[in-house]
């Protein structure tokens, strides 16, 4: 079973400024701050480039059956402002997912505004198809909103 969910959020900030968060290690730091109701701890190993890993430990009971997972940056395209991560340990992989990929795209609308597009793409073993119901774009939408608020605050 294959699926995908996505969210887009317009930001009145240039794409290059948004990428200063999404294209760097500032994103995992923002994750812990913005999603403190869900995320207990974030540990990053590496400089935020391809091959870097991020371990996310959740507040107990937030996601049924998942207490933590480790993701790896598999794509960081600074020119096109695209970053992808794939789960490599724990989390969704323990629930029958064979792929759990998150893609962030910072799309330039014009010189003063952009769109944060967040996409979750997944593959799931047929026998675990019921677990598709736990897939949600909501945390990434909340993260985008937090980035927007931070960027607007620093812009002022």
UniProtKB/TrEMBL annotation:
Superkingdom of origin: Eukaryota
GO cellular component: cytoplasm; nucleus
Cross-referenced PANTHER family: BET V I_MAJOR LATEX PROTEIN DOMAIN-CONTAINING PROTEIN, OS08G0374000 PROTEIN-RELATED
This protein's UniProt keywords: Alkaloid metabolism
One Gene Ontology biological process: defense response
Taxonomic placement: Eukaryota, Viridiplantae, Streptophyta, Embryophyta, Tracheophyta
Single Gene Ontology MF annotation: abscisic acid binding
Entry protein name: Bet v I/Major latex protein domain-containing protein
Gene3D superfamilies reported in the protein's UniProt record: 3.30.530.20
UniProt xrefs under Pfam families: Bet_v_1
Family designation: Belongs to the BetVI family.
Residues covered by the Bet v I/Major latex protein domain: 2-131
Keyword Cell division: no
